[in-house]
Amino acid sequence: MKKVLVFLLSTFFTVTITSTSYAQLGGQVFYKYGGATLRDDRGGEVFTDTLNMTRAGKNDDNTGFAVAAGLDIPLIKLFGNTLLGEVMLEYAKFSDKEVLTTTSGLLYLDGVGKPNVEEVAVSELIVVVAPKYRFELGKVRPWIIPIGLAFMVNSPPSNDTTYLDIGYHAGVGVEYMIIDLISIGVDYRGTFAAKHTGIDATYSSYGVYVGINF
Question: pTM of the entire structure?
């Protein structure tokens, strides 16, 4: 019993000390909402509006909203500031017009059924892995992401039926620590597509976020 108690106490103190030293580096979980702008609209494509075949309209808006969530892992202190490793997921929707759906258009051309007009969303989902350098200026903490890798999912697919791409990601922002546990901030990010899908899915996002610090 005594050995078990000693083991439990030593484990508790080890975890506590490790957690405390880890927390002092300043990690964060954050949630963001804001706007997004697609560089080139996707109107007139096969899967976005069936090439506007029946003149039902083009799905050609290029501005919408973005929601994101991310995790910043503290890596090391550099020149009194913090280098973090960020993993972020962001969903952006740019257009959602009522257009001719691709399936009904193809069936109609084949002599089956009739054209069906429904709302089709043009959107993007990215997963970003990037270094993030945060300047520790007290409660005010500006940061930059000079270079990051984005894994991109385009919806609907491109004309050649592909939807996966990669891209270069960069960002800048600033946050304010309300209390040790909570921060609020604003950011601006750009994701530049490699165009492996045959379309340019490059877009920018901007917004406000709430960070839970640890």
Answer: 0.85
